[in-house]
Amino acid sequence: MKKKSIFFVLFLSIFMLIAAGCGSNNASAPQKENPKEEKKEEAANKEEEAVSGASEEGSYTPYEELKDNYDIVIIGAGGAGMTAALEAKAAGMNPVILEKMPIAGGNTSKSSSGMNASQTKFQTEQGIQDSNDKFYEETLKGGKGTNNPEMLRFFVDNSAAAIDWLDSIGIRLNNITITGGMSVERTHRPEDGSAVGQYLVKGLVTNVQEQQIPLFVNADVKEITEKDGKVNGVKVVFNGTDEKTITSKAVIVATGGFGANFDMIEKVRPDLAGYVTTNQEGSTGDGISMIEKLGGTTVDMDQIQVHPTVQQEKSYLIGEVVRGEGAILVNAEGKRFHNEMDTRDNVTAAINALPEKNAWLVFDSGVKSRAKAIEQYEKMGFTVQGDTIEALAEKMGVPAADLKTTLDTWNNAVTNKNDAEFGRTTAMDNALTGAPYYAIKIGPGIHYTMGGVVINTNTEVLNKDGQPIPGLFAAGEVTGGLHGQNRIGGNSVGEIIVFGRQAGVKSAEFVKAQ
């Protein structure tokens, strides 16, 4: 009987995980005609998310170990939430993490390109000359001058320390590349060049477990409570049925953005109706709504980033690292049409200006060897391949002569370090000459919500008068202001670590002062 029981529990656990991944939150849409239709195509996305959490899934804190009170409640087990928990624990606190999804990671698991940081020890070791001021100015330019200057200054000035902190807990990001809108290699990746997200999540979960920080999944926080003008806990539903009230002296909201909530998106940006989204289905803006009920305010809610390179059928992000390692974009005629390393909004606009509103990302075996995320894209069936440029063109359905001319012209531009056609100046270290050749068909998709709740550099949530709401902190994509009107690729991972750390430190200071 014992063996039968064990097999039944194992089967039930796997079934529940799959069922959760195929839920009806309408996280993304495979076709622009009907973004709210449930999709079997999301299964591949869910499989990848499961990979990031499956090894840890059995080690999440059992429900029966839940306590009625903690020093700090952290809502959300993405990068910001787990980082905050580790810093709070290091400061002597007893924090708890509550995650509404069946696994930890959130949108962090989907991050691919890397983490931007300036003046890092790894840049110095590799002879890369960078400065915080240059990082600041390029990010401000990318955000069209609308970034919150205090938040941005704090972000860049603490970015190198964030890289050091990760390294100190066994998460090393010493492989450096570049993303659009940057002039210097400052996008830090795992040593093998693989996607940053799953590596980061696995490392943070491991540290959370080692520090014995309770992390509950399937824990859906419905309300942040307050008493006498101070936040004092949360109301949460476990496993869809058990309602609990947990008290605390501080709450950190790290619930992510609202990129999977089409109703919220269409209210502020009706022009985005019908786009696919790269967001995991838990990104529904819960934290923003809860904070607004407490008097918190929002900023830049209509600033929603559309990523230019998304595989449309599976709503799957093709990371900027592919272009950062040398890939080019071509249209249905096999011709380049824009500077691939321009900011995301400009590249998106260029693709949308094409009659077909999609394009091909073209690269060679060299790019594939340097951007490990491509292996995942290949496994998921996104790539077409040819031993020659002509063979690739046939697979793509574009004129072979035109694609050959495009690649010859581009390779000459790389050799001469002069892109006379479109003025590209970065990610031109390697020509596309290594067979076999590859291509992925892409189009724009909703990727990131720059807007969110207003915080200060202490990560305190501010009310309409600009005053902190006592005991309430927030970090990550749930907040707004840092990125302005356009986020630079690699800055979101930097944000969750920099401000996640700050939230843990400052909430601990608040609790100690009570």
Percent in helix: 25-40%
Shape: elongated
| Content of β-strand | 15-25%
Instruction: Order the strands across the largest sheet as they lie in space.
Output: 6-2-1-10-20-19
Low-confidence stretches: 1-57
What's the alpha carbon Rg, rounded to whole Å?
23 Å
The main pleated sheet reads as: 6 strands, mixed
Alpha carbon gap, first and last residue: 53 Å
Per DSSP E runs of 2 or more residues, the count of β-strands stands at 20
H/I helix tally? 17
Secondary structure class reads alpha+beta
Mean pLDDT reading: 90
Keywords: FAD, Flavoprotein, Oxidoreductase, Signal
Cofactor: FAD
Family: Belongs to the FAD-dependent oxidoreductase 2 family. FRD/SDH subfamily.
InterPro entries: FAD-dep_OxRdtase_2_FAD-bd (IPR003953), FAD-oxidoreductase_2 (IPR050315), FAD/NAD-bd_sf (IPR036188), Flavocytochrome_c (IPR010960), Succ_DH/fumarate_Rdtase_cat_sf (IPR027477)
Q: Can you put this structure into words, describing what you see?
A:
The structure is a single chain. This protein is of the alpha+beta class and about 525 residues long. The chain has 17 helices and 20 strands. The strands form 5 sheets. It has a 6-stranded mixed β-sheet with strand order 6-2-1-10-20-19, with helices on one face. Keywords: FAD, Flavoprotein, Oxidoreductase, Signal. This is Flavocytochrome c. Its cofactor is FAD. Belongs to the FAD-dependent oxidoreductase 2 family. FRD/SDH subfamily.
